[in-house]
Amino acid sequence: MWAHAQVTRYIGGKPSSPQQTWQRLLGYAGHWQLMNFGYWALEEAASGRFIGEVGFADFKRDLDPSMRDVPELGWALVPEAHGKGYATEALHAAIAWGDERLPSSRTVCLIDTDNLPSIRVAAKCGYFVFSQAALNGKPVLLFERFRPS
After folding, report:
1. What radius of gyration, in Å, describes the C-alpha atoms of the chain?
2. Residue 110 has pLDDT above 90, yes or no
3. How far apart are CA 39 and CA 138, in angstroms?
4. Average of per-residue pLDDT across 68-92
5. Prediction pTM value
6. CB 109, CB 124: distance < 8 Å
7. Average pLDDT of 50-77?
8. Integer distance in angstroms from the first to the last C-alpha of the chain?
């Protein structure tokens, strides 16, 4: 998935090498070990095939304003799964899990300003823009959501 240009278009801008993908997976496992949260693999229910990933992380991004120490929701799906509602379904499940288990009442996400499908998914899931920033020289929107009281 991470070697596909359509997947990485708004996430880093270029396909990942096998080494970069392996480092990403190790980081996901490390999040579970060190932070008690991380990413899950997504499977299509009907076929059982891998269609993407969703989860929370703290990537310690060098952004202003900072999102450090706040769980950051992220997701990516294989191109064949785009536009089918899987991202929204997966985010709702991840958010429900986070509302029950994350110590922070606030979660965040960042999305490339040109990634309109993901911006719509974030809005459907209760995320609102709170700022803009630049990540690797590209403009991104910073979103936040607060756990309902």
Report:
1. 15
2. yes
3. 24
4. 96
5. 0.93
6. no
7. 95
8. 37
